[in-house]
């Protein structure tokens, strides 16, 4: 089984890196390189927006790999704002946006407390000009 990690930057380029996971032992095998590659993708080079996608079949330890990178000290030093949200099987854009907002701003608000446009603007203002890392985990559908 393979897991694919891709990085999409503002400059149209796509890098694919394949890593093998030993499912029988359910342990990360050979993912040290993947961890280092992800950290380098996120911390090195350009300051332009980067989107790193990790795709593969369930059970390949994509979340484990991402969690390691998310909590790595060099990531914590580079990114002033962190958010981790899970989509799962039921995708709702507003719920996801409110969850991200709650982690970025540090307070939760109810969906009926503010308009979607106000929330969009508040989140944009909170992220504008800074470096941030937002992980959206467990996406099941391309629509999400």
Automatic annotation (TrEMBL):
This protein's source sits in the domain of life called: Eukaryota
Which Gene3D superfamilies does the entry mention? Answer: P-loop containing nucleotide triphosphate hydrolases
InterPro entries given in the database record? NB-ARC, P-loop_NTPase
User: Domain named NB-ARC: which ranges?
Assistant: 34-142
Q: Name one Pfam family in it.
A: NB-ARC
The identity of this protein, by name, is NB-ARC domain-containing protein
